[in-house]
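idk why but the lab printer keeps eating my pages so im just putting this in chat instead. protein + zinc ion:
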Amino acid sequence: MFDIFGDERGNKKKRTLTTAQLKDFKAAVGKCEICGKKFSVSVLQHHHIVPKEKGGSDNLLTNVLVVCGTCHDMAHKGFYKQKELREKIKKRSKKVVEQIKAIEGRRRSLRKKKKGDSHTGFGLDVPSIDIPDPFAPPKKGRGKKKKRNDDWFGF
Ligand SMILES: [Zn+2]
Ligand SMILES: [Zn+2]
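predcted complex ->
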């Protein structure tokens, strides 16, 4: 099977949007912008109207749509013209646009804050992924183990 969602999975190095920003973006829109149906954030996906490999930007206000899996699939199969998809972006309500602007603004201020840190432009937008710590103790409150922490390698 070919990778129809390659624009979201294959380009991790190039991605400048953080996972948190995308999540907030989806939450702000709250629905598929193509079919208009409401979905939860975990189900919603994002789609670049102009693919990044063709020079498309990460700008949430101009090039990125929130879509459901079905519409995303169709978009990649060429069911919609880029012009049509751009029309969908224009239909966003003022309130949604304001929220998206705030998310975009966060990205800019993030960069500003980090200036001097690195001027390469790389490594500033590391996606923050909410992975539960696999090494975290399963439960707290089991004080018994804590005492013997230093004995881990104490042979
Ligand atoms: Zn849809
Ligand atoms: Zn896509």
